[in-house]
Amino acid sequence: MPTWKDPTDVRQVLALRKVTKAIAEHLRHLVKDYLSTLAPLLRPRSVFGDYVSGSGKEIIKGAEKAFRDLQSLYEATASAKPFQLPRELHSPFEVLSSTPEIHPVESPYSLKTEQEEKQITISCPLKWTLTYSGFSPARLKELLTDKNRNARELQEFLLHYLVLHVVLSRQTGAVQVLRDLHFPVVTEYAPELGSLPLTRITSVVTTICPPDALILESTELSGMNVFEQIVQLEDIFQMPNAFKEGLLQIVRAHHFVPAPDPSS
Length: 264
Prior knowledge:
Layout: H1 10-38, H2 45-48, H3 63-78, E1 100-112, E2 117-132, H4 137-145, H5 151-170, H6 172-180, E3 185-188, E4 198-201, E5 207-208, H7 212-222, E6 226-228, E7 230-231, H8 233-237, H9 242-253
Parallel strand pairs: 2-6
Antiparallel strand pairs: 1-2, 2-4, 3-4, 5-7
Helix pairs in contact: 3-5
């Protein structure tokens, strides 16, 4: 049976990749179900109210402050590299999509062994970038590398990423629910995207990379320049029951202890 600590050969890596795929598929379905339930809280109008264009009037407490924060973020990000867009953001602004969707996080990686150096992509199967539907990170990168890029489309991408960031900064209940369900929400940055805040959903179960030599051997066997990180099974074996522990702390604070086991 393969160990879950420090795989020493490519067979162990391949075995761990199989269980990683199964776990990733299971957790991905859970996250999608949770986001479907929380989707009404992630609507831009639930935070910005009438600052978002649309029919009907929706008065939201704190909407003016939320819009000012969005304007500040937009002005700081739009004019800087790699976007270099006009800085102005006026209201009401248009939102093309408000349905949340997730995308596995990928990043470039330089493999270095004694024999060679190779550029590959590392995929993190238990961490996802959260966006509104139709605004995938892959399409955003395509726009940024296109010399004839559509400035309006790029502006829409930037706006929707920033809107989601501000929405989640105010919908703390939704963030707390995801954390309690073992999927913490974090803000991260990618070097190629400058100061754009990326909203990501992580898992309390983490993934790791084996040594570069094993990654190189694995990519050569697969014939692909992409390596999917492998699950840290120890996280699962040592996962505490946070709900139970929280209740036990209350019980202990009131000076109660478990009754002795009569069989011992």
